[in-house]
Amino acid sequence: MGVVILDGTTVRSFVENEVEFNKSVDSRFNALDLNSDGVLSKSELRKAFESFRLLESHFGVDVVTQPQELTQLYDAIFDKFDCDHSGTVDLEEFRVEMKNIMLAIADGLGSSPIQMVLEDDDGQSFLKKAVDLEASKFAEAM
Ligand SMILES: [Ca+2]
């Protein structure tokens, strides 16, 4: 477990590094595509958001959300990803919306850094990757 400092600039520069960002998004997409049919179904995408825990936790404090509300929430998220309303999310749709979400997070963070506690198994998380990338840039500059 480690503590990292994260601000909007860190997240933004990660998103804007298209090669690194798409690599992370693509590997996440493949991990989520449980039946390997090349698209994400509603339940596959729901699992993604349950694992991100962006919705259920608020500043690290778990909030209780009713299952029915959650289902509506996940349906709304799925519609946002599924731009062409095909009933599935393809890689391109996933990339576009992940970028939107990360930029929204960056805007939310602004220039006030937050401290994040990362569990050991968070090695694959997007935010962790953003921090690692920023750290490697500092290392190169020195
Ligand atoms: Ca699938």
UniProtKB/TrEMBL annotation:
Q: One Pfam family name from the record?
A: EF-hand_7
Q: What is this protein called?
A: EF-hand domain-containing protein
Checking InterPro entries in the record gives: EF-hand-dom_pair, EF_Hand_1_Ca_BS, EF_hand_dom
Q: Which GO terms of the molecular function aspect are on file?
A: calcium ion binding
In terms of domain of life, where is this protein from?
Answer: Eukaryota
Organism, as annotated: Aquilegia coerulea
Q: Which residues form a coiled coil?
A: none
Record PROSITE patterns? EF_HAND_1, EF_HAND_2
Q: Which UniProt keywords apply?
A: Calcium
Q: Which PANTHER family match?
A: CALCIUM-BINDING EF-HAND FAMILY PROTEIN, CALCIUM-BINDING EF-HAND FAMILY PROTEIN-RELATED
Domain EF-hand positions: 20-55, 69-104
